[in-house]
Amino acid sequence: MNFQPRGLNDQALQGSSSYQAEVEAARALLEANPTWNGVTAEAVARMRLQNRFRTGLDVARYTASVMRADMAAYDEDSTKYTQSLGCWHGFIAQQKLISIKKHFGRTDRRYLYLSGWMIAALRSEFGPLPDQSMHEKTSVPALIEELYTFLRQADSRELNDLFRTLDAARKAGDKAKETEIIAKIDGFQTHVVPVIADIDAGFGNAEATYLLAKKMIEAGACALQIENQVSDEKQCGHQDGKVTVPHDVFLAKIRACRHAFLELGVEDGIIVTRTDSLGAGLTQQIAFSSQPGDLGDQYNSFLDCEEVTPETARSGDVIINQNGKMMRPKRLPSNLYQFRPGTGEDRCVLDCITSLQNGADLLWIETEKPHIEQIAKMVDRIRKVIPNAKLAYNNSPSFNWTLNFRWQVYDAMKEAGQDVSKYNRAELMKAEYDDTPLAKEADERIRTFQADSAKRAGIFHHLITLPTYHTAALSTDNLAREYFGEQGMLGYVKNVQRAEIRQGIACVKHQNMAGSDIGDDHKEYFAGDKALKAGGAHNTMNQFG
């Protein structure tokens, strides 16, 4: 399948035309319908350009092409990795993309991540829940739709500002400015970017996975991330008690997701398969095997077993044949079966190879710490079979990044024979170490972790699952401490509003951000001079320039 290069103009990717062409097309339509009086060609063109994505499927098809092109670019150059931050609300996603465009000019290789953890903790009607797939499955596509609603509104708002600037240039007779603004409109880059959306373990069997996948794709998701845990026993990847399923069960869910993409016409949709085998020591069932060495037999070979004879067999035993011997897998009172200790890495590698050979596009290996060589060791083995294998990796807030990297530097220094006597390894988190050479080296390794692991460990996409959960808590704590303390109103003005103004945060004009200027312009389109607009001289938003 051919995918359009990311370097092309967004309008070409979206099938849009130039501003002037849109105006001319609208003018021809209106001339053919003379009773549509009072409707202007320029207003129609503007509203069309402000709504380039008519449906969630338009979003999914466009963002899939973007992500596919980015994957191809990464295969050629590992410095072109991609990144995302998890967002639990459409407003957070919108502000993230507005900020990216403000600071970097373009949104290239920046995505959104939708975390099942944050939906469970923040978006369930049951209230805050742990990450165990207990939240309503419908809340997942609902959040995807919300994310894209806010991103499309960001498009509309930015273009509306350009249209107003264009009108001002025309009113002033400034032809050069008019030409400049039209060029900006024609070269406009959308805030709509790919979302990698967490479908957990599918919320049921393969049919349930398919039904939910359809809803997520219809809402705009171009990439679905699914994990190999048991659906009704699912745990957060950084919790204990994880239980995996045999490969055949998981492959059926991969096919279910692919069928959903193909049914809806998103032929280049992306499936990200996550393996929790590194931290999962249990399985719910013994895999079906029809011959030695098949996939079921390989899965069962990792079970923790003991040889039995007719004399040592017990009532209720499950017994399997392994290499001609009768073996009893260790079964817990929960009726789960136990894997042999130390097999997690081998199981991860087998999971990844099997997934890529059966329709997956990207891998996700859930690890217990951020260690490049640990990841690279597994990827090296996978790439011996699948040379272009690449990962999405969770730069998780569940890791203590400071402590992990200080430990890594400490251990490297000690192994190299350097003097580490002034450091207490057990207390390296303390602030007293912040300005030491060890801590500075650790911080530098953290800073370059994404670039280094993209090059060494095949990580195409770096994401932080829960960052905006933590930033919301931190900023609220800071505001509460100041506002309800001695600083009073200055706690808000100095640390929030004054900072917004000086940093150029668009949201300081919260009426504009919520769409008041767009609404005013629509009123003028609809009612002309009779429109009652909100943005007049007495609007206090004018205080912000």
Q: What is the makeup of the main sheet?
A: 8 strands, parallel
Tally of contiguous helical segments:
20
Helix content: 40-55%
**Structural class of the helices, strands and pairings?**
alpha/beta
Mean pLDDT: 91
* Molecular shape: globular
Number of strands: 14
Order of strands in the sheet with most strands: 12-6-4-3-2-1-14-13
Note poorly predicted spans: 1-15
Proportion of strand residues: 5-15%
What is the rounded Rg? Answer: 27 Å
End-to-end C-alpha gap:
50 Å
InterPro entries: ICL/PEPM, Isocitrate_lyase, Pyrv/PenolPyrv_kinase-like_dom, Pyrv_kinase-like_dom_sf
Catalytic activity: D-threo-isocitrate = glyoxylate + succinate
GO molecular function: isocitrate lyase activity
Keywords: Lyase
